[in-house]
């Protein structure tokens, strides 16, 4: 959450002192472009782009200054280790760049390039800096949790020109490392899929001392001119040693140190991922031209006010992981660098007559990555399916957290619920209007003057009473806690932060002070293990007075947002634990704070082991392990509603699928039909929260009035009844990284027409195909069907079939939602106030028959709360309908807690089975066989375009047991 146009009076006075802020506090309706750098305003971005331009201009005559020393290359235990020499002048001087190419057991490869001089600390820092001299090499420590085992089975062969490594499953992968110029081709089944330095844009800015050049003298005569061959080409040093932006100067103690590399995907037309950006899922070209961007995609976590919906501008989170896709092939790269990063994308019509790439794959996507500092450290995933790539990436960075069940239900938030009575009143009204919700949220105003871990005594004097009322319906409270700690006398938390020296430092090693919500603040440095320990201690129930076990946490502003800092964040020369410059770690910063809070919620009380829920705004690769993200401060506009799905899809592609956007739009007051449509869309966000700015009118669903309140309630009920399906999808994501809402190319990697579709998607493996309305006054939508299967309208069983676009009615009260034939969808149909109250409710199974009259589905259930599922306390069933029989089969793995859990679930059964698309022959049936017994069945004839359906009532089978129901 960001600035109010009428900031609370407590800091308006202080604000006046900060002239830099004046432009930010004025109400406006567009992003403040001038607050964030364009590529041209970023030194290393301009330098790397200029380098690329030079290479392109030189064409064939471009001399790549990087080559591997052939003799240096050793193969040891799955790694090629050697040295790249960079020629730095015409005199033959070189710089040594150690390179390690690791081949992992998982089939992924990793290329790491460092710089020897910096590695050994043989450099001088300017300005008496106390910063570290090495290139930042700890990104792995935060991002990677596994999957680094080196392969034992790769085969290497070398000659004077190249080294070739065969690796991966059945040695189908191959890396060809060319020495001069340096480059690597990654192949699968003998076809090149990924090329490093193919265009010669690799750039490692080596360390050099600053040489103060004498001012150029007027040349005195012809004879004084130096012979031309002595002159080295002039380099543009203007941004090497310092640069300024928006009144802030960044003195760079280490000089220029960016790393860049071009990565080409031959034959690949689409690239996805690299969140967070607002724009289409299929990433655009970035070097100008019709409909393209002019700037590269930027990754530099920032608090961007009123961001626009189609832009490569940076936003709050950064995951430098990209997937490239062509017909029946997906590959990926993960650029593991935590510094400011930009990515240029260019697509070229290729003339690969030599390559047999197949029809429709004639476009190459050329990408160019560069970061301000750190290593070249890139992982390459060779697929071949999107699921393979996501799985391999997740083996390294972890899979999405399996959240508590309440966390995937509906969250009611606004800035702010103003008193504990207000919260209790909203809670009562939701009940009065029979609107389900699980969580109510508190933004910053609940605190005593923005001091976290306190409650405003005047407005939230009885937090425990409020928490107790919520708990009576199994509801939760989420309160915001940010990383800025108010610099205020008599605030014990800041006293401890200072005395224990756990805050981020400025370049001189003193505690850094900046401005945020509380005014003058310090920032806890969660790169410091001691700071994490301390942070954990603050959440103990006896320390965070007025908290209870149904209180969870929201981490905002963790980019970090610093109101008076450059680009609204910290100076790049601030120092973190270990004296790493903020520059080196910026994009990881938010994740370390999110992690500290996650760890804290694990340990609030001895023996209390429940899954934490922490929402974060800032994130990096790996944040998916820790909770949910949302897309920040969007606007109450149709365009923002439409922008959300592509963003959420790209986040899922990049391994962080627990994502959502503020329902209703954060800024501004949505029209009622926009609000209604937004709830219908939100019911399909993995993270589903309504939220609003402090200046907006109240918009709790019951305030909308009819028909809106009723329609919104229907959308919420739909989410609640499908919670078993959503939870099953979350489980799947938590074990293999498959996105929770899935773009078409994930399910149909061969269907070229649908690769770029980002306004409709599948929910998990359920076969539910949704296209919520995101445009004004729509009466229908066109849903693209990827195959010739039967598709049924979820609500009235209207049947659609035939590949291509179908018109599906979508009046305001209707969400365009189809069931693909061949699936079995688990539901719970009894309306309740919260998901917690549904725990023991019976299930409904919906069977959507395909043309072959078969269907399959899965259900995953656990206690939705603890970690007992890790000891086998869960139910995982496969349902299959074929040849007139429905079978429930156990697909779980037993553990020591299984039996006890199954016993507790014995009384949870199935109350109803709905079969859609049943043959006419079923018309005479009135019962089905359930084991040795029977259950009643009703047949409902089809009607024109609507499929016939049947319903089995009370089959009396338990959800956790094997059974067969015979319809024959
Ligand atoms: C999270 O915190 C734990 C516990 O202190 C620490 O070991 C781990 O390195 C941290 N991870 C991240 C991503 O911050």
UniProtKB/TrEMBL annotation:
Alphabetized GO MF terms: alpha-1,4-glucosidase activity; carbohydrate binding
- Chain positions covered by the region annotation Disordered: 207-259
Q: Which residues form the Glycoside hydrolase family 31 TIM barrel domain?
A: 401-729
Predominant subcellular localization, coarse grouping: endoplasmic reticulum
What positions does the domain Glycoside hydrolase family 31 N-terminal occupy?
Answer: 98-344
**A GO BP annotation:** N-glycan processing
Question: Which key words tag this protein in UniProt?
Answer: Endoplasmic reticulum, Glycoprotein, Glycosidase, Hydrolase, Signal
Signal peptide as annotated in the record: 1-30
GO annotations of cellular component type: glucosidase II complex
Q: Does the keyword ATP-binding apply?
A: no
Q: Where is the composition biased (Acidic residues)?
A: 231-240
Q: Glycosyl hydrolase family 31 C-terminal domain spans which residues? A: 737-825
User: Any idea where this protein resides?
Assistant: Endoplasmic reticulum
EC number(s) from the headed UniProt entry: 3.2.1.20
Q: Where is the composition biased (Basic and acidic residues)?
A: 207-229
Q: In which pathway does it act?
A: Glycan metabolism; N-glycan metabolism
Question: Which reaction does this chain catalyze?
Answer: Hydrolysis of terminal, non-reducing (1->4)-linked alpha-D-glucose residues with release of alpha-D-glucose
- InterPro entries per the record? Gal_mutarotase_sf_dom, GH, Glyco_hydro_31_AS, Glyco_hydro_31_C, Glyco_hydro_31_N_dom, Glyco_hydro_31_TIM, Glyco_hydro_b
Query: What PANTHER family does this protein's entry cite?
Result: ALPHA-GLUCOSIDASE, BCDNA.GH04962
Similarity section:
Belongs to the glycosyl hydrolase 31 family.
Q: What is the name listed in the Swiss-Prot or TrEMBL entry for this protein?
A: alpha-glucosidase
What is the organism lineage in this UniProt record?
Eukaryota, Fungi, Dikarya, Ascomycota, Pezizomycotina
